[in-house]
Amino acid sequence: MKMKTISSAAALFLAMTMLAGCAGSGGNAEKTDNTHAPAESEAASESTPPASDPAEEEKLVGMTSLEMVRAMGNGINLGNTLEVYNHQSYTGGANPDGFETGWGQPYTTAEMIQGMKNAGFDTIRIPVAWTNGMNFEKDDYTIDERLMNRVETVVNYALEADMYVIINDHWDGGWWGMFGSEDQATRDKALEMYKSMWTQIGENFKDYSHKLIFESANEELGDRLNDKDITGSEGVLKKSECYETANMINSEFVKLIRSQGGNNEDRFLLIAGYNTDIALTCDERFKMPEDTADSKLLLSVHYYTPWDYCGTESVDHWGSPTDYDEQNELFEKLSKFSGQGYGVVIGEYAVMKKNGGIKPDTDKFYSNLMDNCDLYDFCPVLWDCSNFYKRVSNTTADETLAKIFSDRRYENEKDKDTEAVKTEAKARIDETRQKAEDEQIESIDLPPSDDMAIAWIMYAASDYGVSYSVGDVYDPTNCTTGVKAENVQITGEGTYTVSLDFSECGMAKGVAFSALGISNGEELFPGYTYTIDEILINGEAFEMAGKGYTCSDDGKCTRVNLYNGWVKSVPEEARTADGDLTDCSAQIMPLTESKRIKTISVTFTVKA
Questions:
Q1: Residue 234 known to be catalytic
Q2: Cα distances (angstroms) measured from residue 18 to each of 77, 97, 103, 193, 352
Q3: Which one from 83, 219, 220, 522 is the annotated catalytic residue?
Q4: Whole-model pTM?
Q5: pLDDT tens-digit map of 93-114
Q6: CA geometry: angle at 563 spanning 330 and 316, to 5°?
Q7: Does the annotation mark 348 as catalytic?
Q8: What is the Cα–Cα distance from 386 to 409, expressed in whole angstroms?
């Protein structure tokens, strides 16, 4: 993820992400000494590469991409630290090796990194903003030695703690948008700058252990190639051109590093997927680059799905059968790369809570994610900004999560047969998914039945972050975890009320689609009409924009659209109790995204 200096356009984003992890401090920044910086002699002495065990190096060189990912085990990010963007201060004369506390995290120490290793993390990803030490506006791409030394010092801490280490160029003020500029000279300058950056990084670290991995980018190789952070105007690349440019950058990255000799000839390289998004990276337009080294390329994607649970306050629960299906299906889709022999690194994943704390069901989310990683040979790397691992005190924030990470360390799985690990993971995935379905069915007062007409509210929030049984098939298990529904059996004429309560999963943002549905209504009560008498939003009466009408899409489920933006006119087969279709609409309940809905109830009258 990225973070910026505050601008009018970014202020709202910053207010959230400063406290939400991923691109912010995680809300758990403890009081730190932000003034500490190493003396020049200290920085120099700590920048000496740790000695490598020749036998271990030989083993690493002989590993395939899939074997490397298994050895990398379970990882964590040093988030909001060396990628803190403070380029303006550098061009104003500041020392770039002191920027790392700017987003609320403490100054990195060897003890801190060793503590992460002790907590069960075998790999550390160290995001870096390299332009913090460049005067690139003046076409000077030389990385300040002080910044290079500081990054090297932190890398050494991790290697000395016997961790695998990933370094990249991470958002870095959005300079990547230069690649999408309308001006060809600006595009050429972007590539020149990128190659100069990695020439210096690669040369500096080329004799380092093969446990050090270079990552081509963060989330920028994709749509963000059109960012305007630096250029001041949106880029002009079409989607297909963004794919082509991302593929080109990854290819240039591999060729450059391989040309440097030393351990870079066969160092493992981590290739950023398109937007690091699973679905977009699985698109046939994304291509892994060619490589002169054999089986030394890894793929990087990030996982924050669903975002409303992982990154916002609107959803507080996870773990429905639908939730499990979504995660399992995306990871299965991603496994096409491991099937081709590429080790996959989930370079970032997290469930983040504003102002810190651990969200309910985070343990379920992480456990199932790690089971998928075991099944498909992926390495998970937690995005953390002192949310889970408290860097000041070197303690962990939650015992349940601490056990999950500790249990999944490589040391506990290294002696297991690979196929046995996969078999066990698949069994856990199936078991937890079935348990979620069983628990949800047990909690349902009115399960689906062909012998009953059941009324319910279909609902999807404007951002689709919260939903309940959308579609003509009544399925109360198909919903966001935490949604409480009061559905009702229709037994004939009369007045009924149905409702939804989103309180336990946060709240719903506006509406993208909603309807009153009656399962089997056309079969058990053919020709009946359903008149909306009252809609209550958060307990207050809502003034309807027009009159609803009774209809059916499939000849089985009866429906009254509350908000259906896809229906532009009243269908001929629509019916009302008074026979008058004047003022009827499929959008009688317009709710903008700014409207936060905790509860909704619909009272309606049924007539033959």
A1: no
A2: 16, 21, 7, 29, 11
A3: 219
A4: 0.82
A5: 999 999 999 999 999 999 999 9
A6: 45
A7: yes
A8: 20
